[in-house]
Design a protein that fits this description.
Blueprint: H1 4-21, H2 36-55, H3 82-88, H4 91-98, H5 111-117, H6 122-127, H7 135-150, H8 154-161, H9 168-183, H10 189-232, H11 239-242, H12 252-259, H13 261-270, H14 278-290, H15 292-299, H16 306-321, H17 325-334, H18 338-357, H19 375-390, H20 392-405, H21 415-430, H22 436-450, H23 455-472
């Protein structure tokens, strides 16, 4: 019932929120109007960040220069470590890589010796004995590498001095900036768990909206019943007040819905109610009473059929309730999730009422829609989110390689575009049964709705390049 269209939207939203806040490390920005010391210090700081990535197995030159570690056996304990993965996921670091802002190649001659010396450090010997390495362990190791193999290394200092902007104070400042960045990290496990919980909660709230919308029919009918009863007891009731047309308040669809066991159980369990939205109910009821649909229904001769009663509410929802601004505004105040869910859940409300229209037993045979079609759909969102987070760095590098080829300014690449493409690549590689065209179309639609006006076309072009590469590499097999 909560279809994959909505699940994809939820995953992209939560992935965007999580990735935007999950950076373990805060990257120092350049100083405005810097002195020579501060300028060189920040330049060296960026070079050192690139060195950490390079010694961790990352390409920091976009293929423009060969790695100084080429031909050297990579250290499995250091390669693709947690600290480097975290740094590589940060937008500011990716911008340095994409725009080739650093001068890390000036240290190519000394990097191999530093790399070879890492296993001699006591911190490294303790590190490789750990059964499960955590981010704090990587921080301790790299802090030792910087202090013992870089900051006081004569060869490294000599390489740094070749930069005409070199200053001793700037050198010290650059080293200390990196040490501070590493020491001032935060653990993201709590953030990840919160994001996963938020994904489940938002999908539960979407299903709650489905029932809440159906409940509107019951509550609007009840309000009209109270109005008619109040009219009977006013000081000078008219004949029409005393003998009102009860066709609307005795609507068979509303009666069947209010007695549906699934509906009653869910509404009671979740304590759903529109009682605090009296103004909304009044406004919707007034629009219904003024509509041609209502007038024609009330003027019809004879006893209305169950199908006719159900069809009335299908038309009311389709033409009056769902398109109106009043409902959207009310939903915004009730839940931060519901405005984005209204279109999809409204569609399922209409499908449900159509089932009532086709009922052979006056609604007794109608089952309300389950939250998910099957267990695969239930796991689709969590699996997509967790896999995207796990492989974010790898997919981000893949995206960046084509962004670089297209000569797209990294500063103009909207972060939402990156998130959408990461989610799309995750789906392409994780769900072989979903056709490529379906995945592309769904995420391009999300881009058109949630990102910049040009995002859809841009994402389409980058994803096609990614798909062709994945196929060429023998990673993606579907069509």
């Amino acid at each position: 019932m909560i279809n994959r269209v909505l699940i994809r939207i939820k995953v992209v939203q939560l992935l965007y929120s999580y990735l935007l806040t999950q950076c373990e490390f805060k990257i120092e920005p350049p100083v405005e109007n810097p002195s020579r010391d501060k300028k060189y210090g920040h330049d060296l700081y960026e070079d050192l960040l690139m060195m950490v990535l390079e010694m961790s197995g990352y390409d920091v030159t976009g293929g423009r220069h060969a790695s100084p570690l080429r031909g050297i056996a990579l250290n499995k304990h250091i390669n693709n470590n947690l600290l480097a993965r975290s740094l590589n996921s940060i937008d500011e670091v990716r911008t340095i890589v994409l725009k080739n802002r650093s001068n890390v190649t000036q240290f190519d001659s000394v990097i191999p010796a530093i790399y070879d010396a890492i296993p001699s450090l006591p911190a490294y010997k303790s590190y490789i004995r750990l059964k499960k390495v955590e981010l704090k362990d990587d921080v301790e190791l790299w802090t030792s590498i910087i202090n013992n193999l870089i900051a006081k290394n004569p060869e490294f200092i000599a390489a740094a001095r070749k930069n005409p902007e070199f200053t001793v104070a700037g050198f010290t400042r650059g080293i200390n900036s990196l040490l501070y960045t590493l020491s001032d990290y935060k653990d993201n496990r709590t953030l990840f768990n919160h994001a996963r919980h938020a994904l489940d909660y938002s999908l539960d709230k979407a299903y709650e909206l489905y029932y809440s919308l159906l409940l509107l029919a019951v509550e609007i009918t009840r309000m009209q019943d109270l109005r008619l009863d109040a009219a009977k007891h006013k000081l000078l009731p008219t004949d029409e007040d005393l003998h009102p047309n009860m066709r609307f308040v005795e609507n068979k669809f509303v009666k069947a819905l209010s007695e549906n066991p699934d509906f009653v159980e869910f509404v009671d369990k979740k304590k759903l109610s529109w009682d605090v939205d009296d103004a909304l109910l009044r406004g919707l009821l007034d629009k219904i009473l003024q509509s041609d649909t209502y007038q024609e229904y009330m003027a019809a001769e004879g006893e209305p059929s169950f199908e006719a009663d159900s069809e009335l509410w299908r038309v009311i929802f389709k033409n009056i309730i769902l398109p109106g601004d009043d409902l959207a505004e009310a939903l915004e105040s009730k839940s931060v999730y519901w405005n984005d869910d209204l279109h999809v859940m409204g569609t399922f409300v209409l499908k449900t009422i159509r089932k009532y229209c086709q009922s052979k037993e006056d609604g007794a045979d109608v089952k309300l829609l389950p939250q998910y079609k099957d267990d695969e759909d239930r796991q689709f969102g969590p699996t997509l989110f967790e896999t995207a987070v796990k492989n974010y760095d790898q997919y981000r590098e893949l995206i960046d390689s084509f962004v670089n080829q297209h000569r797209w300014d990294a500063d103009r690449l909207a972060f939402m575009d990156t998130v959408i493409m990461v989610a799309a690549i995750t789906e392409l590689l994780t769900y072989p049964a979903i056709p490529i065209a379906v995945t592309l179309n769904e995420y391009i639609e999300i881009a058109n709705a949630y990102s910049t006006p040009k995002s859809g076309a841009f994402i389409n072009g980058i994803l096609y390049s990614v798909i062709n590469k994945l196929k060429a590499d023998g990673v993606l097999f579907k069509s």
